[in-house]
Specification:
Rossmann fold; homodimer; 225 residues; globular; alpha/beta; 9 strands; two-stranded antiparallel sheet
Chain lengths: 225, 225
């Protein structure tokens, strides 16, 4: 097992679930309140899905936002404390489930759109999950992924796929054990879709209003008929 | 007409054709000799086309390299001095033709692959050309575009589509009147393909061996059946 790995991401979220719920619900993450929350909602709704699966839904804000537009939403997260919070707030059907369980076919449903909002930060867990994405989509179904933009996120490290150290810089002192994350180049992201029976339909790069640099990247891909 | 425009690109190439032929044939452009020449050859040949149309072929080096692998190659360029040089060196069927003429259907052929190597640096001329690309492709035909990588090429200017001033920095003093070029974000490149009946198949980001930053980006897209 490498020094940084998928399990540490899960460990970190078990530890940080409560401060995360507070940070999200109190609007403490500037890039989200200024840019990326609206960007993922707009991207999902622009394809007018009647049903959405929110993978890595956390405390459920995105599921609630989409459900408020008369869309059926199922939210999946591995962390019981986050799913608990989501269930209490309502607005969707929230379940505790791992990416491995989804990949193993334990989620018996299909939807018009799968949404993943900053929830694909691992390596093997994400690769495995992606192989099952087409089976979760209705014909012409879309998968909409918002993640760190390779342009903004590479920093001074080499532009190659690899694990990166995490950080809670800018967050409150209640956070600890930052999760590592797996950097993917643009070419690797494209391959993740194309090699799993998905066709890239659109790339959005919502600009941060202060820096004018993309605050994130949103990939939209379609199940190939 | 904006201050920087497509016509200035054409004007610049008319003026700089001779020094360009020398620079290419004498291996004077380091990024090309170290990285991007090999990258576009490999990308094109990886799809095993039997016929290739090289749009913006210049003095014909790429056409010759591909033709040497038993591929039928037609090369198109607007600048007669470049096409002359290509014809004298042989290896393909080279013709003087503008992107507007291609867009108007004056090139009565279809190929397995269209290659564009750093030849899509304009705005309207490129947008117009792209509308005709599917009509030039056989079923499952590919278009393979190598261009400036938005990551490396944006520099300190805002990450938005727009005309940029050109430069011959690093080239010999024989060059003058640098061509402006039209910066496209990643999202805009993706839209250029998808909105013209093409499906993105692959993105390659050949790294520069010295900086380890992508020296270019190569988009591969396929005609949707």
């Amino acid at each position: 097992m490498p020094k940084l790995n998928d399990e540490q991401i899960v460990d970190s979220w078990h530890i940080n679930a409560e401060p995360w719920i507070n940070a999200v619900r109190n609007g403490q993450i500037e890039s989200r309140t200024l840019v990326t929350d609206r960007a993922i909602i707009d991207a999902v709704l622009s394809y007018a899905p009647r049903s959405v699966l929110d993978i890595g839904c956390g405390e459920g804000w995105l599921a609630r936002a989409i459900a408020s537009e008369n869309v059926d939403v199922v939210g999946i997260d591995l962390i019981p404390a986050l799913v608990d919070a989501a269930q209490r707030a309502g607005g969707g059907d929230f379940r505790v489930m791992s990416y491995a369980e989804i990949a193993a076919g334990q989620l018996a449903l299909t939807v018009d759109a799968v949404a993943c909002n900053f929830s694909l930060l691992g390596k093997e867990a994400v690769d495995e999950l992606f192989r099952s994405i087409p089976s979760l989509l209705n014909p012409q179904g879309k998968v909409i992924v918002q993640t760190l933009h390779p342009i903004s996120a590479c920093g001074t490290l080499p532009y190659v796929d690899g694990w990166r150290e995490g950080s809670w810089a800018g967050f409150s002192t209640e956070f600890s054990n930052p999760a590592p994350w797996y950097f993917r180049t643009l070419g690797s992201w494209a391959a993740l879709f194309v090699n799993n029976g998905l066709r890239l339909c659109e790339i959005r790069e919502p600009p941060h209003p202060k820096t004018r640099v993309p605050a994130s990247i949103i990939f939209v891909a379609e199940k190939i008929a």
